[in-house]
Amino acid sequence: MEKLIITCPDDWHCHVRNGEMLKTVLPHTARQFARAIIMPNLKPPVTTVAEALNYRAEILQAIPKGLNFTPLMTLYLTSSTTPLDVQQASENPHVVAFKLYPAGATTNSDAGVSQLQAIYPVLAAMQDFDMPLLVHGEVTDAECDIFDREQVFVETQLGAIVREFPALRIVLEHVTTEAAVQFVLENSANIAATITPQHLLYNRNAMLVGGIKPHFYCLPILKREQHRLALVEAAISGNPKFFLGTDSAPHLTTLKENACGCAGCFSAHAALELYAEIFEANNALDKLEGFASFFGADFYRLPRNTEIVTLTKSTWTVPDSYGEAECRITPLRAGEAVHWKLG
Ligand code: DOR
Ligand code: ZN
After folding, report:
1. What ligand has the least distance to the C-alpha of 14?
2. Half-sphere exposure of residue 47, counting CA atoms within 13 Å on the CB side?
3. How far apart are CA 259 and CA 212, in angstroms?
4. Which of 130, 195, 244, 260 is the most buried (most CB within 10 A)?
5. Do residues 268 and 249 lie in contact, with contact meaning Cβ atoms separated by under 8 Å?
């Protein structure tokens, strides 16, 4: 097939940062997607409706003229979040969910939650006000091997939350393991998951064989091939519990190519094309539209988009970097070929 026409997609998990970085990266997301769930892990984090509305205004300013793009805002859960914050968020049409970062799990998660039980009253309010909980599902115990952190979180923490709050809608973000896929499959329709392009395309060898490749380093970390295969199966299954969330997470190239490199892959420049590659390689291009354009909207109870986009089978080379000198970022596939082209 040389052309694929699908309903305009949305990105259900995206980091667009603020300031100069926002101006560099937002146009990519706005060109690719009609809507995106905007992660709140700024420094300091976005914890109140007022902060989310300020951040939203900054994002709106950065949308290139002529593009129709809607940022869907989220609030960052801390040990100080109250049920009243949840009520206020539920009353604001621009704020659609709360994000749970276990403290210390990833980039800008220091203000996250260290004792899950401590926020149970807030989770109860989220269940009552029907605000979805978006979860970074990794434990942070120093003794837990980094490759096991998601599976252990699923086994020891997530089940308890689901049992305690059966009506709470939960998105297990950026799933990376068979265990996480299995958990989502075994639980009710209230439990869904996003899957990133990097976790569908690559296993940990891409990051570690032949030298350390810092641009493949993200959290949760890339896993072994058996897990990648489980993710591909879930993504192409047509099961509405699994939908697109890039976790596009830009960092300055200098901070990735570093003795202590930051976690995050920037994929917004070619997100839909990279997903198309995976679906095509698995003879499942007919399943791309549901995954990219329908299931997330349905889960969030938002209308499906009505516009269409066209993907053409055409090879192009990803630039080595995007952004001006002081704001240079290295994209996924930098300097390499991508085999689909949007627009
Ligand atoms: O790799 C990651 N980068 N994982 C996250 O959870 C956060 C993200 C970021 O903000 O850079
Ligand atoms: Zn993320």
Report:
1. 2
2. 17
3. 11
4. 195
5. no
